[in-house]
Design brief:
2 domains; binds calcium ion; elongated; binds uridine-diphosphate-N-acetylglucosamine; nine-stranded parallel beta sheet; 19% helix; UDP N-Acetylglucosamine Acyltransferase, domain 1; 16-stranded parallel beta sheet; Spore Coat Polysaccharide Biosynthesis Protein SpsA, Chain A
Amino acid sequence: MVLAAGQGTRMRSSLPKVLHKVGGRTMLDHVLVAARTLSPASISIVVGHKAESVKAHLGGTEVQFALQEPQLGTAHALRQVEPLLRGRQGTLVLLSGDVPRLQGATLAGLVRAHQEAGAAATVLTAVVERPYGYGRIVRTDGQIARIVEERDASPAERQIRETNSGIYAFDLEPLFEALNQVASQNAQGEYYLTDLVAIYRRRKLPVATLVTDDVEQIRGINSRTELAEVSRIVRQTKNEELMAAGVTLVDPSTTYIDPQVEIGADTVIHPGVTIEGTTRIGAACEIQGGVRIADSEIGARVSINNFCVIVGARIADGASVGPFAHLRQGTELGEAAKVGNFVELKKTSLGAGSKASHLSYLGDATIGDRVNIGAGTITCNYDGTHKHQTIIEDDAFIGSDSQLIAPVRVGKGAFIGAGSSITDDVPAGALGIARGRQANLEGWAERKKG
Ligand code: UD1
Ligand code: CA
């Protein structure tokens, strides 16, 4: 089960804490990824503060919800799942929705340690440099005796550097009955789950610990500062992975790549680049500074010049984009296609070897191979109510500053005269020209002066 009902006061956010993102994914999703590696019989999530938005976020997944209202502390939160687990036996693994770096292997280790020790409860702990804010593990004769929260700790206890990760394995059998004994006599007036340790010890129930040496994995996020710190670690880990796999990051400290992104060897990424979501990039590409790419598929040897925004696009091998291009959802660029500066594409495919080099809007268009889109070409795709399609067949040539008023089709190899407003289909091989005729009035300037 996962605790995710708390308000996250220290975040000062209208968004529930567990829905804040780390490395492109919500904290809660990270925790669920780790949880699922155990193939548990069920996953329950305690929701409370902004419960509806947390539930909506997880809509359609296998998780069960328990509502904690009001939120009276972590022990009170755990009590809320009792109805869901009534009559069950076995091991309950308790996770915290705000500890997103935890890895499945560590959880498996916790379960193993718990079962091997035959413990009633096992606490995952770590010895850290800066224990501030965490519960401290108080030991007597080497055995865990209790956990004391920062706010309730004596100055001597605050010196203890072994901290509680907030992650535990419990034998279900004695758990819920013991939980009823937790009181709220502490600095926050809350029911602390951590009090269970002392309660178990008093009842002679065996409590074990597993001390992990990967302290980064169990970092909790309570504030925006901690969110930024953990995000930095996630990024750094990803950057190191990519570099080890042959990707050049010119300045890793200003490179922001989400964990799921894939990038081929010999691709060079310049400073200030952000690559998000499910993006995949091939080998030997060059991505210049200031580019943002999200959920896109990019082939090999593609060059993306500075300051492009590319979202939901597919770009084939050898294409080149930018600088200052905007490729929106549903853009498809064929092999060696070229999109130049100040060009925007949306739901548009531009075929192999085709070019839109300057100052264009191409929306809802299907453009064939080897087409030249002149500077300033605009597909007028919207009539105020509906969107309409523009089709431009192979080898067509669209003269500069033309408007293609959709729905409209330009046939194979057709030419459009520069400055045309094209309202009717242009047959293959034809010249379509639609603009006011020019008149030259001889001597006009002289006459005006006189
Ligand atoms: C908790 C532990 C602390 C541990 C730390 C590790 C307690 C009392 N303290 O402190 O020993 O070192 O985690 O990160 O358990 N939550 C609820 N309902 C509530 C209160 C909290 O669901 O009523 C959830 C929160 O959403 C959060 C988790 O429980 O996901 C932990 O709560 P939080 O307030 O962050 O506890 P910490 O002060 O970090
Ligand atoms: Ca916390």
